[in-house]
Amino acid sequence: MQTTELVRWKKLGKQITVLTAWDAISSSIVEAAGADIVLVGDSLGMVVLGHETTLPVTLDQMLHHTKAVCRGFSKPVSEQPLLVCDLPFLSYQCGEDKAVEAAGTLLKNSSASGVKLEGAAAETINIIKRLARIGIPVMGHLGLTPQSVRQLGYKSQARDKESQEKLFNDSKILQESGCFAIVLEHIPGEIASRLKKHLDIPVIGIGAGNDCDGQVRVTADILGLSIEQPPFAKPLFAGRELCIDILKKWIKSTNLNQENPTIKTSESKSDY
Predict the structure, then answer these.
(1) Does the model's pTM come out above 0.90?
(2) What are the residues facing 19 on neighbouring strands?
């Protein structure tokens, strides 16, 4: 799927589904589930690598996990989900040349179709424009931007009139700079709904109400695998508890067989 297809979907009112993946197993699952877009998010720093924030994630780590995600897809390339990869902290904030090199590294060495970066600072806008000019699709990200956690924390954004006006202006600038879609995170639903009507490109929400052009979720959060769930991303399944319960049963069964070696769970028959 091409990024340009998403604008057509918005016009048709077709919802866009985005799920994260971080390795071959997770990508094979979200592909089989039918996700339209698979995001290799720097949230893997917290979900997979155990960091408290996304800040420690490196470009090498993002490339490593993106390659693994690519290997997990089984459908023909033309039928695979659109693959987007986050540019990690300080891979694009230190100058346009470094940003182009980082984005190019991800696209040259994987089947990723685009990159996602956060914010709408003047320097970031210049980078988005340059990436768009050389043919690297960019997804924007406004609202709660995790790479700004030291400045903003993880609290809801755009709660007052001034910050809401800034969000509207920033979203328009991102669109004009060449972004093919924008993620809005942890903002009031009514603001996201207005932005959806305000923009020609798709608005993808997470913790931004249901009236968006699409929704993105961290797969581990939906499956209830995360130790700490975001308040705006409720699990649909008690995956962590279920996995622990199943593994406990296996361990108990294994220990029982060791304590009672005469108990045979099955007889193996020779073919000879």
Answers:
(1) yes
(2) 38, 217
CA–CA separation, 68 and 27 (whole Å):
8
The ranges assigned to domains in the chain are: 5-239
Residue 269: pLDDT over 50:
no
Contact (Cβ atoms closer than 8 angstroms) between residue 6 and residue 16: yes
Which CATH superfamily does the domain covering 5-239 fall into? Answer: Phosphoenolpyruvate-binding domains (3.20.20.60)
φ/ψ bin of 116: left (φ > 0), alpha (ψ from -120 to 50), beta (otherwise): beta
Q: What would the two tokens of residue 76 be?
A: 């023909």
Sign of CA dihedral 208, 209, 215, 221: positive
**Annotated active-site residue in 96, 165, 176, 185:** 185
pLDDT tens digits, 34-58: 999 999 999 999 999 999 999 999 9
Is 79 labeled as catalytic in the residue annotation?
no
Q: Which residues contact 13 (CB under 8 A, 6 or more apart)?
A: none
